[in-house]
Amino acid sequence: MSCSHDPVVDGERFAIVAPNRARSAGFTLIELMIVVAIIGVLATLVTKMIQQAQAKAAEAGAATAVSTISSALEEYNRDEGVYPAWNLKVDDSELEDFNAFPLLYESIAGERPPNGKGVKNSPNVDLDMELIVIVDDEFDEEYKRPGREDLFDPEVEKFYFDPWSEVYRYRENRSKRRKEDWMIKRSGFDLWSIGPDGENSACFGIPEEGEDYDDIGNW
């Protein structure tokens, strides 16, 4: 008696061929390559989206800092009748390096500014202590966090880092006898971050037609 379960058609027996389980159980090399390629594309898109979000957040942070410090400068001006560094001369030949921010700092955020927030000798603005820096004398054009003595010493020049670890720039305009071409805001002061490209383009004034810069300021 036959134990075979193969079907019989018209007296002829046909063998049933079992599927190749090993072959159908996994992916082929081509399928794996396609999956890897899709994952790579998605990862690239996600990375770009994160980078764009971080860039926008940095620009927004710089704009907020400029706005906050500008408001404190206006308060200072209402109390004192001048903006900090009103008596400093800006040399046209040194515009790129000129920065009166240390005087701004001592005037509105130092240990004993003249007036602030309605009371004598209190700051007009509270700056993030983590972003306050001083010049590192051991390395040219480098900055470092101030120690406690440096932080409260008005003779030590303090600067303030933007989101790209570059210092904010400041110059006073109102006291100048004539309006210079380098003035962006034609009255009061210019306060700005040099932006993500690291180029201090705004120091030369409003860009010429067809030119542009990414500096972020109070204009």
Give a description of the structure.
Helices cover about 30% and strands about 15% of the residues. The protein has about 220 residues and is α+β, with helices and mostly antiparallel strands. The protein has a single domain (about 50-215), classed as Glycoprotein, Type 4 Pilin. The strands form four sheets. It has a three-stranded antiparallel β-sheet with strand order 6-5-7.
Brief description of this entry?
The chain is 31% helix and 13% strand.
Helix content: 25-40%
Average of per-residue pLDDT values:
85
Beta content comes to 5-15%
Architecture per CATH nomenclature, i.e. the level-2 architecture: 2-Layer Sandwich
Strand order in the largest sheet: 6-5-7
Coarse structural class: alpha+beta
CATH homologous superfamily descriptor:
Glycoprotein, Type 4 Pilin
The biggest sheet amounts to: 3 strands, antiparallel
Which spans of ≥5 residues are poorly predicted at pLDDT below 50? none
Quick one: CATH class?
Alpha Beta
Task: Indicate the radius of gyration in whole angstroms.
Answer: 33 Å
**Net shape:** elongated
How many structurally independent domains?
Answer: 1
Count all strands and give the number. Answer: 10
Order of helices and strands: EEHHHEEEEHEEEE
CATH fold category name: Glycoprotein, Type 4 Pilin
Give the distance, in angstroms, between the N- and C-terminal Cα atoms: 101 Å
Note the total helix count: 4
